[in-house]
Amino acid sequence: MLEILYQDEYIIAINKPSGLLVHKSFYARDAKVFAIQELRNQIGGQHVYPIHRLDRKTSGVLLFALDAAVLKIMNDRFATREVEKKYLAILRGWSPEELTIDYDLTNDDGIIQNAITYFHRLQSTEIELEFNNQPTSRYCLVEAIPETGRMHQLRKHFKHIFHPILGSRPHGCNKQNKLWLENFDLKGMMLHAHQLIFNHPITNEQLILNAKINEEFSRVGTLLKLDLNTYE
């Protein structure tokens, strides 16, 4: 059963599990289960329209419209940046305290697109894990707010500043991912869409939807001695 965060006659939001595709994809033809069909079945067969996307490995708030008119309203609000998306990510190393990354990205069609991400560091940690001939390894927890919505934007932006998201493939650190797979059996990616802020498409009331972190994110946080109580 999908965790429903909000539901009325116009929109519905879930806490998407990591590993679940939003819909069928050419890039993941092995997948047999999708958020759209699971949610539709769960609410009695009513059609649902995904308003935005989350990567397969990204967990967190995912919003759907329940009719085409509401879908258009919300698509326009996403396009005009009237919706604020907040993500939690665990990065390799100690990132700057805060930074706006303004770095263009190239999509699958070879088109260069402007991409902007603001983030600030929430916590820093260092554990006894040997890496690159050093006895310890450093990591940090950040909150990221993408101003644009490009494909794999957060993964690519954090790799660009040399603080890749732990568990990200292919836009991560392969050596770190291997280290965590061998030592801690980490197969997921430490990226979670923890909050979505927007005005309701019909009532215009402000909604703040929060999604709790998943067990894997919590487990890694414990290993890193991060305080994630606020997000559990």
Automatic annotation (TrEMBL):
Keyword set includes Heme: no
Keywords from the named record: Isomerase, tRNA processing
Record Pfam families: PseudoU_synth_2
Statement: the UniProt record of this protein carries the keyword Isomerase: yes
Enzyme Commission number(s): 5.4.99.26
Chemical reaction(s) catalysed: uridine(65) in tRNA = pseudouridine(65) in tRNA
Top-tier EC class: isomerase
Annotated PANTHER family: MITOCHONDRIAL RNA PSEUDOURIDINE SYNTHASE, TRNA PSEUDOURIDINE SYNTHASE C
Protein name: tRNA pseudouridine synthase C
